[in-house]
Amino acid sequence: MARFPCLRRLLGTSLRRPIYRSTARLVLELLEERTLPTINLTGVPVNIPEQSLFNNGPVATFTDTITTDLAADFIASVNWGDGTTAASASISGGNGNFTITSTHTYSDERTANVVVVLDQVSSSSSFTVTTQATVAEADTLLAGTMTVTAAEGQQFSGTVATFTDTLPSGPNDFQATIDWGDGTIDAGTTTGEGGGIDVSGSHTYADEGKFQITVVLTDDAPGTASATATSQATVGDADILGGTGVTISPTQFSSFSGAVATFSNMYPANSASDFSATVDWGDNVTTAGTVSSNLGVLTVAGTHTYAGAGPFTILVTLTDVDDDGSGQANATGTATSTANVAQAPFTVKPATIAPSEGALFNGIVATIMSTDPTSKPGQFAATIDWGDGTMTGGMISGATGGPFTVIGSHTYAEEGPYTETIDVQQVEGPLVGATAPVKVSDPAVIWTGVSTYRTQEALDFGGQPLATFTDPGGAETVGNYTATVDWGDGATTAGTVVAQGSSFVVNGQHTYAEPGTYAVHVTAHHDQAADTTIVTDALAVDAPVLVNTVSGPRALAVGQYFIGLMGTFVDDNPTATTSDFIVGLYWGDGAFNLGSVVPLGTDATGKTLFGVYGYHAYSTAGKPAFTLAVYDIDGANCIVYSPTVLVYQETQFLDLWAVNAEIVQAAVMNQVYNSEFAQDHLAFEQSLANYWIAVYLEDIGTYHRVAQTGML
């Protein structure tokens, strides 16, 4: 065609119609030698906001080596890469440089591969180039707020936020998240039309309150548009509480802790921590209760100490706690319970008492211990069963709060064991009793007088009264009393009790071995009563020493030794021995020596017989009176006798002694010098018993000789 420009111009107009184009091309090809062009197609990047019209904008350029080719020699189309149908494009330019333009609107931001196809009409050649379209975000989102109303425990479903888009992109280009304000985040659902987008969701609030809902709307990738809407959720209270009262039985002044009411809830999912409780105990005291939950049942417990006794009405109020201060927690419930408060308990502790028979007992029989610090004695009354068929009232005393004492008075007629019962009745309260054993003893006897017991050593004087007593419990038969007597000398014997009117006399009988004053302890015994002892005196005098016979010399020659029995005596003490005595011999001439005491058996009355022996020689004649003194060492008794002795010159009596002097003298001297007056006194006495001379002196110078048969 380059070589046939005239023909080309001729045919340029007529052959523009597609129906003739192929025929014209064929004709031209037949007319000239074919020369193929070189086409270079280059894409032009597209940059445009979404939903903005790309109006006849360049998408590609190309060059043609055949500079005579016209734009009409080419046809172009554009595939925009967004799923829309390929669109036709316009070609402009000449002289080998051309531009392909097209018009398109992207509905959403993206990066798209734009494919441009160029067809050369004359050669049926087709050229393709891919360029990139960058579709920028053009959405501008405006968030709106709204209020959501829901109820705890019930599912809410609905719109939670609205948005306005400056582009009518539609809801499908966006995604949403919903933060419900209670720790839960869910995906939201977007709906709407035009530029309006609604976000909706479903959620169940566990508790009432006000919650801030945060909704975030985001354009799909690669979109960057985003907006956040804040809505307010007002969640109403769904609790419906039904209270049930209970009956409790506390004790006055003792702390009570336990359940006071139970509550049911139409919304059982709420925990015990969602509620608070108060307990009005009915005695003008209100305290907080403790709430617990089990299987949907709420239990309110409390602790309280009642100061008074009796029935009290308890009002228990359970309230849903307004945790967030939203004012949405408004559920409340009440229950009425009953407290039957028992009076403060008390105990009765019996005392140990020890009354005596016949004696008035007046004292404490029991102690009352009360747990009521305000209790007073007047709140109690006591009766005492003494166990012997007698009942009396008790007197109660003590300070406020106790302890209190119960005092009783009673006289037991007889000793013995009894069981005492004390019953204490509290006004409008319980009766408490206590028992205790009581041992009633005989009272000890009371001594009223003593007597001194007088006797003689070794002599039984018979029974004598020692002391008298009375029985404060009343005189009983004499057989109920016994006595023992400690005589003070190591001997103890039974006393004899003798009734004497309303008194009793204790007699005793004892033999003292030695004289002296003794402390006598008299003890009285009476059944179970304590023994009592009184002390009196016993005076045992020395047994008298009595002269039995008087012997000794009656006549002696001057210078003649006398040795022999001076006399005999008896002692009323049958246990006396020679060591109990000292005998002094006063010869009347100024000479003194001790006599020798020897036992001689018993006399006719059975008393001990003692003999006194002595020896002496007078140096001058005369008629001296010698004295023999016997001293009882224990009793300090003394007997004295003083016979006279005729002392003569031996020449005066030669005829008397002529025949027998040598025999007598030999016998006497033999005993004196051989026995020395200390050996075998009995044999000495027997040797002298065969011969003795008694001289009865009627006048000086006159004598008589009296001889007795049985001489040596």
Describe the 3D structure.
The chain has 712 residues and is mainly β. It contains five helices and 49 strands. It folds into six domains: 36-136, Immunoglobulins (Immunoglobulin-like); 141-236, Immunoglobulin-like, CATH 2.60.40; 241-341, Immunoglobulins (Immunoglobulin-like), CATH 2.60.40.10; 347-437, Immunoglobulin-like; 446-541, Sandwich (Immunoglobulin-like), CATH 2.60.40.10; 545-688, Immunoglobulins (Immunoglobulin-like, Sandwich). Strand 20 (275-280) and strand 21 form a beta hairpin. It is rod-shaped. 32% of the residues are buried.
CATH superfamily of the largest domain: Immunoglobulins
Please state how the strands of the largest beta sheet are arranged side by side.
1-3-6-5-4-7-8-2
- Apparent shape: rod-shaped
For this entry, what is the oligomeric state of its chains? single chain
Secondary-structure class: mainly beta
